[in-house]
C-alpha cells in the first residue's frame, strides 16, 4: 500500500523542488479527500472522480500550482475551486492564510467538513470565485484549480495586491496551459488538463 512518502518521491522525480510544498504533501492524508472505495489509489499521482462531475486534481498539478505562487509564508491566498479540499489543505501548510471558494454547494459542504479537521484555519466559502474575488480581496496570491476559457479572468487580476501572483490554467474546454501572472506579465508553465471554470453557483 502506497503512502504520502511515495507521492513525495514521485513529485521530486517530476521536478518539484519546493521543500515547503513537498513537506505539506507528506503531511496531508489524501485518502480522506477521495471518494469512498478509492482510498487505495489516493497515493498515486492521478486525478480521481469526486462526484458532481468533478475531480480531485493530481498531486503533481497541486504541487506545481502552489510552488508557482512563490514563497508566500505570510501571504493571504485565494483558491478558486475547492473541489475535494485537498489542494486547500496543502496550500494551508505553505502560506499565511487561505480562503477557498467552491461554486457547488454540496462539494463545499463536504470539503468544509474534512478541512475543519485537517486544516482548520482554511476559510471555505460557497459561491462563484470570479464574483467573490474582488469582494474578499486583495490577495497576495490566487490559485485557480479549474480551466479559464480563452483568457485570464480580469476580475482575478484586479483582486491582486501590487506584487500579487495569479496562477491559473487557461485554455479551451479542458485542455490548456498553466499560466503564472505577476506585474502585468504572463508566463506559461506547463500543459495541463482541468475541469472548466464555470460562472454562477450550483445547489
Ligand atoms: N482543488 C480541487 C480540485 C478542484 S476541481 C481539489 O484539490 O480537489 C475544480 C472545482 O472548481 C470544481 O469543484 C468546480 O465546481 C469548481 N469551480 C468551477 N468554476 C468555479 C467558479 N467560478 N467558482 C468557484 N468554483 C468553481
Overview of this protein structure:
There is one protein chain. By secondary structure, the chain is α/β, with parallel strands linked by helices. The chain has one domain (4-193): 3-Layer(aba) Sandwich (Rossmann fold), CATH 3.40.50. The chain has 7 helices and 10 strands. Helix 1 packs antiparallel against helix 2 (19-27). The radius of gyration is 15 Å and the shape is globular.
Lay out the secondary structure.
Blueprint (H helix, E strand, L loop, with lengths): L3 H10 L5 H9 L20 E4 L2 E3 L2 H10 L7 E5 L5 H7 L4 E6 L2 H14 L4 E4 L2 H8 L2 E6 L3 E2 L4 H4 L2 E13 L2 E8 L2 E9 L10
Parallel strand pairs: 3-4, 3-6, 4-5, 6-8, 7-8
Antiparallel strand pairs: 1-2, 8-9, 9-10
The structure holds S-adenosyl-L-homocysteine (SAH).
S-adenosyl-L-homocysteine (SAH) binds next to strand 2, helix 4, strand 4 and helix 6.
